[in-house]
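User: Sequence recovery, please. Input:
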């Protein structure tokens, strides 16, 4: 593994390259740093979500997700290395089953809105999808384990579900899209 930073202003990236954990340097515009950056941005947005009032179980889950995202980013920074474990994906699957069981069936598409915490969870969801696309693109360029891609896919699903949970925290509800199709369908039945 590469050297840990003891100072931040190293100036080694001034030439448009960045160092990976295996001591190689690559363009900052290449797939690996782009995927790492998207995962880092997702982790930062989850940190912002954690500034909101949240149920304690959701808070604990999101703190653990931040640690897993750090593992995922570390794995991306060291080609061929494995840091993200199968248990991390299993945790997301369990959380999805737990929180989905509490929610009513969706009637229509929902808007990324509602409470501030729910809206921030939706921002996290969209950044997770972007990070997933970056990891998929990286996997098309070079050998990459499936675990990072699967984790981000499942995490974006969980963040959608958590946004719905957070909108209901104080008796609220989803913010439904006012679909022309649904409006017509409702008039036809009425």
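Assistant: Recovered sequence (190 residues):
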């Amino acid at each position: 593994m590469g050297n840990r930073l003891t100072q931040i202003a190293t100036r080694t990236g001034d030439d448009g390259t960045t160092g990976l954990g295996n001591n190689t340097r690559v363009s900052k515009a290449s797939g690996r740093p782009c995927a790492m950056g998207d995962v880092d941005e997702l982790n930062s947005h989850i940190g912002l979500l954690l500034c909101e009032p949240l149920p304690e179980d959701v808070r604990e889950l999101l703190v653990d997700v931040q640690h897993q995202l750090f593992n995922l980013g570390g794995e991306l920074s060291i080609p061929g290395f494995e840091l993200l474990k199968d248990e991390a994906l299993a945790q997301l699957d369990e959380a999805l089953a737990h929180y989905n069981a509490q929610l009513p069936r969706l009637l229509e598409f929902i808007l990324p809105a509602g409470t501030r915490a729910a809206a921030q969870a939706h921002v996290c969801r969209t950044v997770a999808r972007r990070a997933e696309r970056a990891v998929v693109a990286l996997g098309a360029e070079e050998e990459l384990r499936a675990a990072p891609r699967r984790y981000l896919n499942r995490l974006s699903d969980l963040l959608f579900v958590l946004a719905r949970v957070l909108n209901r925290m104080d008796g609220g509800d989803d913010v439904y899209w006012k679909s022309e199709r649904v409006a017509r369908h409702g008039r036809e039945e009425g």
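The mean pLDDT is 89.
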